[in-house]
Write a structure and sequence with these properties.
Oligomer: single chain
CATH architecture of the largest domain: 3-Layer(bba) Sandwich
Radius of gyration: 24 Å
Number of domains: 3
Distance between the termini: 63 Å
Length: 429
């Protein structure tokens, strides 16, 4: 009996199901792109891919490689369907089989300031180096390489004439790698980090987010090969490296000023003043968290990002802000059993936020899982309460934690004051 027609029918059915599934996915991508543009979220914050439509074959390799789901296929071509979600890790670039992707900074509408640096990552101000995200490099592997390579140039400048051979600002991938290289080169160093933990931007990734896939070369450690690794696993690895190598990091210490003094610098931090022959700026582009400037904000219960919603289970929490980070924090908290959540925002409506966040927030508010106070501002923070002004009236709420999601202040003015030159990129490398 001839079964060939059955095989042909089975293959035809498989092909039909394949194209049906892909058509639905492409329609969904087109709808997401439309919603992103309508919400004003099409502008990527930093390094991002630009797809050459003449080269793109619509394979979807870049889409599958992007853990942020920022890319999609529309009209048979890859597109950046959610620019605000792109964090510039560049996995799409290496995944493209036809080399149809270029990573660029800024867009035609919104420029991004990128500092001028030499091949050794030294700025136009001799002795000040920039590596990692501040210099436009969000890739973990590349940032770590830059930090290590910058220390090679710092070593040649070290002459013992200052308290420190190098002050390293930031403890993300670039700062950690630079600190290890400083130990290897027997430099007198100091690493400062304004947060309470190492990791830089990685520390603030969502739980279980895939953080790194490429091998990286670290001083004192050698080549470290990773497959896919979660944020938690990567942070645990770095913490183990710090323990094993004896790398010293001063947490909760913030850079406040740099002044040229002879062949080096006098650097002011929140912990004191230091003289340094060289300075490596390895902080992220998130900048210093924007403060509320209200009485009680210095309390330990006030933080500026939500890392783990579960730790606030059963507590009274106030979230301040009106962007996606604030909405996502309030939503995650409201989904914890027994947590009382209030979201305070000074404007009369949320703008430039993802539609799914707005919808989910509305559902939770209607269900009584959280309370939204528009046109409200925080007046003061007390040990067990927080005081607000809401539509002209005073309001006091029970409170055990405050999470401020009001964005950050980039250190660009401070760096320009030192003399560091920046170039504004409008969709260019």
């Amino acid at each position: 009996m001839d079964y060939s027609y059955l095989y042909i029918a089975a293959i035809g059915l498989a092909v039909a199901l394949y194209w049906r599934r892909h058509r639905r996915a492409h329609e969904q991508h087109a709808q997401e792109l439309k919603q992103t543009l309508e919400a004003g979220l099409g502008e990527p914050p930093s390094l991002h891919p630009v797809i050459d439509p003449s080269r793109c074959i619509g394979s979807g390799s870049c889409v599958r490689a992007c853990p942020e789901e920022a890319l999609g296929i529309v009209g048979g071509k890859a597109v950046l369907k959610n620019g605000s979600a792109c964090i510039g890790h560049g996995a799409c670039l290496s995944a493209c089989p036809v080399e149809g992707i270029t990573l660029v900074f800024g867009t035609e509408k919104r420029g991004i300031d990128i500092p001028h640096v030499s091949p050794e990552f030294e700025t136009n101000v001799p002795g000040i180096f920039i590596a990692g995200e501040l210099g436009g490099m969000g890739l973990i592997r590349k940032a770590a390489e830059q930090g290590r390579q910058a220390m090679d140039a710092v070593r040649r400048r070290a002459d013992g004439s200052h308290d420190l051979d190098v002050l390293i600002v930031g403890c993300g991938p670039a700062g950690l790698s630079a600190g290890l290289a400083a130990i290897q080169h027997q430099l007198r160093y100091r690493v400062i980090e304004q947060e309470e933990s190492l990791g830089g931007a990685v520390y603030h990734y969502p739980r279980n987010k895939i953080a790194m896939t490429a091998p990286v070369q670290l001083a004192l450690v050698g080549k470290v090969r990773f497959g896919e690794i979660s944020k938690e696993q990567l942070l645990e690895f770095w913490q183990d490296v710090v323990r094993r190598t004896g790398l010293k990091v001063s947490f909760r210490e913030r850079l406040t000023g740099i002044e040229r003094r002879g062949e080096g610098f006098v650097v002011q931090t929140s912990a004191g003043t230091f003289s340094a022959r060289s300075v490596l700026l390895a902080m992220g582009r998130r900048g210093t968290p924007r403060k509320l400037d209200v009485p009680g904000e210095e309390s330990s219960k006030v933080v500026y990002r939500l890392v783990d919603a579960e730790q606030y289970r059963g507590r009274h929490v106030l979230v301040v802000g009106g962007g996606d980070s604030a909405l996502e924090a309030a939503i995650a908290l409201a989904e914890q059993p027994g947590t009382t959540v209030t979201l305070s925002y000074r404007s009369e409506a949320f703008s430039r936020v993802k539609a799914k966040n707005r919808e989910r927030l509305g559902v939770l508010a209607d269900a009584g899982r959280l309370k939204v106070l528009l046109r409200s501002t925080v007046q003061s923070i007390e040990q067990r309460a927080v005081n607000l002004e809401h539509e002209g009236r005073k309001l006091s709420l029970p409170n055990e934690a405050v999470i401020v999601c009001a964005g950050g202040e980039l250190p660009t003015p401070l760096l320009r004051q030192v003399g560091i030159r920046f170039e504004t990129k409008f969709g260019t490398r």
